[in-house]
Write a structure and sequence with these properties.
The complex is a heterodimer of chains A (392) and B (293).
Chain A lengths: L7 H13 L2 H25 L3 E7 L2 H16 L4 E7 L3 H10 L4 E6 L2 E6 L5 H21 L5 H5 L6 E3 L7 H35 L2 H8 L2 H33 L3 H35 L6 H4 L1 H16 L2 H7 L6 H11 L5 H29 L8 H9 L1
Parallel strand pairs in A: 1-2, 1-3, 4-5
Antiparallel strand pairs in A: 3-4
Helix pairs in contact in A: 1-9, 2-9, 3-5, 7-9, 7-10, 7-12, 7-14, 9-10, 10-14, 10-15, 12-14, 14-15, 15-16
Chain B lengths: L1 E10 L2 E11 L4 E5 L6 H9 L6 E6 L2 E2 L2 H4 L2 E4 L11 H11 L4 H14 L15 H13 L5 E4 L8 H16 L4 E5 L2 H7 L2 E6 L2 E7 H7 L3 E6 L13 E6 L2 E5 L5 H12 L2 E7 L3 H9 L1
Parallel strand pairs in B: 3-8, 3-9, 6-7, 7-8
Antiparallel strand pairs in B: 1-2, 1-4, 4-5, 9-10, 11-13, 11-14, 12-13
Helix pairs in contact in B: 3-4, 3-5
The chains are: A alpha/beta (392), B alpha/beta (293).
Subcellular location (chain B): Cell membrane
GO molecular function, one term (chain B): ATP binding
Membrane topology (chain B): Peripheral membrane protein
Chain lengths: 392, 293
């Protein structure tokens, strides 16, 4: 007689093979793929729209330069429209940029000009305004009896200063964080429910009594968790591949380069976060006596998953930094910080270790409740009851 | 050999199984009888390790039973259930694999057993597509596919059509003939009486009778029926026996000893003709009613 230490593999294989033949699962996966493709398609379509940028200017000369740059963009067929916004002084230009009334500001700087942005540089604005300024400077210098090329070009350089410099494109980081969060949220919810249902199915049919007499319940639990984690991770990888493929096809390689480190960290965090949640979902299933009960026993879990999601994507600053070290919460919060360039190299590593320890504790704790609740077939239990009985 | 040694289970203040001891010897078919709530299912769940005992222990071949031992037990729970949406052969093979049977052997045995129960052509159907009787047959296959060294069957005959009952009986006989102990519970007392080597009667969590069927039947008080040629009322005048019932020419009496039969016959013949004097052997159902009353 073989030992029972690897029976979980049989359980995991069954979970996967049953799921892969489940029509609901296949349809929902296909639907998600369609959504990803549609999202990329929509983004691609929107990218075709003309972008309007407001440029704050302190005087008429600057205003003329903006108008000239707008004409150049138009000539170059760039999808960019530049509009001058009159300001009282150089100081108020800065104010308009920092409060968002204007996307950028053009002010005098010695013999030349200076472009002011808020937190990120817009390449198109810099290109066309730069050309306009250069052309203007060259023309004026030539008119003033241009002697050398160096003199001709004097004042045509355009330094681009940021008031609040930021290494990466903030928008892309934000979107990347939301996408990761969404993937985890969907997987945690869909597969979580699937785990709970698969547990209650066995409990309701009493097949769990046959299984429990054949193998240790821990093996059953491990098999279920691993089987569903493999499925969830597989689905996320599939969606990511389609997403990455979409970005490549739509020529968004810059964005991809920016998202790469985030994706790299997201995978291990996803794996560990999902394992911990999967164990708790198994408890949700064990607490119910019929599949109808899962609706109510799962309420605390659906709430938790939603809090993890919104906590991960909506918080900023210190709150986000704290959450990025809390097990489960770190799944979304830490990769989001990595994407935004806010995390030092060691931070995700430490958070991952904490998440690992947290997941282990949750697994042990969940196993006890699962064991207690699974054999209690007479009525539905609450988390608290299962905990109390498990402690007895 | 399976031995239950002073097995007890309490649920809160309620004692569901109270100090239950009995044996299921190798090759023995033991019927476990008792009303609803008598504690049969609780006892069987403790034997299978699905439920912890509050006190006492289950012994297998003279040692406390282990999880490894139980992996070789076949079990059919009271409330039937397999995976409704999984194909029949696939799930019985899966259960066999959980018991340590190789994937190849599991499929082979599953196919053979399904064939034996006339379900060969349904092997790829989902369980829920089968009739209830056929689902029961699959349940039997699931219990025996791993070739268990001990069978514990909770109400294996309930819900079976007569054909399936015969199949089941034949299968159980096969197991006992190879030395496998079989413990099964049932409400169908006639079936238990016909099949079992031993009968254990449980009432309110306690064993109230345990023995070979014939022994049990004769363990009760010795009663005789006397039918005479005329009114049998005179038996009331005999001081050395208890009269249970007298009606016309028939009397039912309880004797203190077997030798009193001759004495009764002599008395009867002295008063006229005797049509019948016979020992009343109770059925298991009668015994059951008596011990559980």
């Amino acid at each position: 007689m073989k030992s029972t230490n690897s029976v979980w593999r049989l359980v995991a294989v069954r979970e996967v093979s049953v799921k892969l033949r489940d029509r609901n699962f296949l349809v929902s996966t296909a639907l998600m793929l369609v959504l990803v493709v549609a999202a990329i398609g929509i983004q691609f379509a929107f990218a075709g729209h003309t972008d309007t940028k407001k440029i704050a200017v302190p005087n008429a000369t600057a205003s003329k330069l903006v108008t000239a740059a707008d004409r150049m963009a138009d000539t170059a067929d760039a999808k960019l429209e530049l509009q001058p916004r009159q300001a009282d002084s150089a100081k108020s230009v800065t104010e308009m940029v920092s409060d968002g009334t204007a996307d950028a500001g053009l002010v005098r700087s010695g013999d030349g000009w200076r472009l002011i942005g808020k937190s990120s540089r817009n390449t198109d604005v810099a290109t066309y305004l730069g050309q306009a300024v250069q052309q203007d400077a060259v023309r004026r210098n030539a008119a003033a009896s241009g002697t050398t090329l160096a003199q001709l070009q004097k004042g045509s350089q355009l330094p681009y200063e940021l008031l609040a410099p930021n290494d990466d494109d903030e928008g892309a980081a934000r979107v990347g964080g939301v996408v990761f969060g969404m993937l985890f949220y969907l997987a945690a919810l869909l597969f979580g429910m699937a785990i709970a249902n698969s547990v209650v199915e066995e409990k309701q049919n009493r097949i769990v009594e046959i299984i429990a007499s054949a193998i240790p319940l821990r093996q059953l639990l491990i098999g279920k968790i691993i089987g569903n984690t493999v499925l969830a991770l597989g689905q996320v990888v599939l969606l990511s591949l389609v997403g990455v493929g979409g970005l490549l096809v739509t020529d968004n390689t810059d964005l991809l380069g920016q998202l790469a480190p985030g994706i790299g960290w997201f995978v291990p965090f996803f794996l560990i976060g999902f394992l911990a949640l999967a164990a708790l979902w198994a408890v949700v299933g064990a607490l119910a006596t019929r599949s109808e009960d899962v609706q109510s026993t799962s309420a605390p879990m659906t709430a938790l998953v939603a809090i993890v999601f919104f906590g991960g994507i909506l918080t900023t600053g210190v709150f986000q930094a704290v959450l990025s070290f809390v097990p489960i919460f770190s799944t979304i919060a830490m990769p989001a910080r990595v994407l935004a360039g806010d995390a030092a190299w060691w931070e995700p590593l430490v958070a991952l270790l904490i998440a690992l320890a947290g997941a282990y504790a949750i697994l042990r704790f969940a196993e006890r409740m699962y064991r207690t609740a699974l054999m209690q077939t007479s009525h539905k239990l609450s988390f608290r009851q299962a905990l109390r009985q498990g402690a007895e | 050999m399976l031995r239950l040694d002073r097995l007890t289970r309490r649920f809160g203040g309620h004692v569901a199984v109270d100090d239950v001891s009995f044996e299921v010897g190798d090759g023995q078919l033991v019927g476990f009888v008792g009303g609803n709530g008598a504690g049969k299912t609780t006892t069987m769940r403790m034997v299978m390790g699905v439920l912890q005992a509050s006190a006492g222990e289950v012994r297998w071949n003279d040692a406390p039973v282990t999880a490894i031992d139980r992996r070789e037990f076949g079990y059919m729970p009271e409330e039937r259930g397999l995976y409704p949406k999984q194909p029949v052969l696939e799930q019985v093979a899966y259960l066999a694999q959980l018991h340590g049977v190789s994937a190849h052997d599991a499929r082979e045995r599953g196919t053979a057993l399904l064939d034996r129960f006339g379900l060969a052509d349904r092997a790829k159907d989902k369980l829920e597509a089968l009739s209830l009787g056929n689902q029961q047959r699959v349940q039997i296959v699931a219990a025996v596919i791993a070739r268990p060294k001990m069978l514990v069957l909770d109400e294996p005959f309930s819900g079976l059509d007569p054909g399936a009952v015969d199949d089941m009986v034949a299968l159980l006989r096969e197991f006992t003939s190879t030395g496998t102990p079989v413990l099964f519970s049932s409400h169908q007392l006639d079936l238990v009486e016909r099949l079992c080597d031993r009968i254990v009667i449980l009432s309110r969590g306690r064993v109230v009778a345990d023995g070979v069927a014939d022994e049990l039947r004769r363990s009760g008080p010795l009663r005789h029926r006397l039918v005479t040629g005329n009114d049998a009322g005179w038996v009331r005048d005999l001081g050395w026996l208890d009269v249970i019932d007298v009606g016309g020419d028939t009397a039912v009496v309880q004797l203190a000893a077997a030798e009193d039969t001759d004495r009764l016959l002599t008395e009867a013949l002295r008063r006229g003709s005797v049509r019948e004097l016979a020992e009343i052997v109770p059925s298991v159902a009668d015994i059951y009613r008596e011990v559980t009353a």
